[in-house]
């Protein structure tokens, strides 16, 4: 199997992520939760215009720490730490834990109806990120013991569901009564120039059904319409700071989905590569524990 430079770079990022996930687990679960809270800070932008909603979100975050989502993350963390401490032991227990977490967290993520509501987005984002990590962990552990086809089966099943979920969220969050703004390219508009990089917008376009099959001419027309819309005399009032804040939250949320989907896709390629090479363990294609960070070229 041949990979171009972009695919190799993406695979390298995923390999680094996998090594870190397996070798370090979630570190300390409290540290992991604190990190998640920081990552989810953008959700506060959704409720900046309502004190009551801010208080409700604060309560939701407090309850989250005692939720079943946290218990699943903690259980998976415990298994990963056991592998890290006793690498000579069988990973079967960790595979079972990852499988259980994957099934539970995917169910939790998929049952939430997409909506621009802070508490829903909080629960959804935690479930989605946990689902992705559990899937990556299970697939990687299967590949480590040579079960490449099983890893491919897991990834194929989850990527289909994850892609559909990402598209559903993008359609719901980008929906706008003004058809010219019913697109990921709205983030190229003047209000977002200082906040959202073009490459992030391109990633979001990949999960928004209305955007990912557009021709270059269609993209140019959409960009032109967006520029005109934000230059209209009513724009400062209609697209005020509260509106902009919500759009920034939407962009952050959707970019996370697109990035996680890309990682799962790349891991599928890696599982196929392991099978094609006939390796007994994926570790044969991974850099050693003492390898320096940087671009890693696959052997052969």
What does this structure look like?
It is built from 11 helices and no strands. The protein has helices spanning 5-24, 29-39, 51-64, 68-85, 92-110, 118-144, 148-174, 198-205, 216-231, 235-238, 241-277. With 300 residues, it is mostly helical. The longest helix is centred in the C-terminal third of the chain and has 37 residues, at 241-277. It has one domain (7-284). The protein starts with a helix and ends in a 23-residue tail after the last helix.
Q: How are the SSEs ordered, and which strands pair?
A:
Layout: H1 5-24, H2 29-39, H3 51-64, H4 68-85, H5 92-110, H6 118-144, H7 148-174, H8 198-205, H9 216-231, H10 235-238, H11 241-277
Task: Work out the helicity level.
Answer: 55-70%
* Helix/strand order, N-terminal first: HHHHHHHHHHH
Radius of gyration: 21 Å
**Which residues form runs of ≥5 with pLDDT under 50?**
1-12, 14-38
Mean pLDDT: 81
Instruction: Report the end-to-end length measured between terminal Cα atoms.
Output: 11 Å
According to DSSP, the number of beta strands is 0
User: What structural class do the secondary elements suggest?
Assistant: mainly alpha
Shape: globular
Notable characteristics:
300 residues; mainly alpha; Slr2037 protein; disordered N terminus; 67% helix; globular; 11 helices
Question: What is the compact description of this entry?
Answer:
This protein has 300 residues and is an all-alpha fold.
């Amino acid at each position: 199997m041949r990979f171009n430079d972009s695919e190799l770079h993406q695979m390298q990022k995923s390999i680094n992520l996998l090594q870190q996930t397996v070798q370090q687990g979630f570190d300390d679960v409290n540290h992991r939760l604190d990190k998640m809270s920081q990552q989810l800070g953008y959700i506060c932008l959704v409720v900046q215009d309502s004190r009551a909603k801010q208080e409700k979100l604060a309560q939701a975050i407090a309850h989250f720490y005692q939720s079943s989502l946290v218990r699943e993350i903690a259980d998976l963390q415990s298994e990963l730490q056991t592998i890290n401490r006793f690498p000579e032991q069988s990973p079967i227990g960790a595979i079972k834990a990852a499988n259980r977490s994957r099934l539970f967290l995917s169910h939790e993520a998929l049952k939430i109806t997409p909506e621009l509501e802070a508490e829903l987005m909080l629960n959804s984002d935690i479930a989605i990120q946990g689902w992705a990590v559990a899937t990556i962990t299970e697939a990687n552990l299967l590949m480590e013991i040579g079960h490449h086809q099983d890893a491919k089966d897991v990834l194929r099943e989850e990527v289909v569901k994850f892609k559909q979920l990402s598209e559903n969220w993008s359609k719901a969050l980008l929906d706008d009564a003004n058809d010219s703004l019913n697109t990921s390219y709205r983030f190229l508009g003047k209000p977002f120039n200082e906040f959202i990089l073009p490459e992030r917008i391109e990633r979001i376009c990949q999960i928004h059904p209305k955007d990912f099959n557009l021709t270059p001419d269609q993209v140019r027309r959409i960009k032109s319409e967006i520029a005109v819309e934000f230059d209209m005399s009513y724009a400062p009032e209609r697209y005020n700071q509260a509106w902009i804040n919500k759009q920034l939250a939407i962009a952050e949320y959707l970019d996370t989905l697109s990035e996680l989907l890309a990682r799962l896709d790349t891991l599928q390629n890696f599982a196929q590569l392991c099978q094609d090479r006939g390796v007994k363990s994926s570790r044969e294609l991974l850099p050693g524990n003492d390898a320096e960070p940087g671009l890693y070229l696959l052997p052969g």
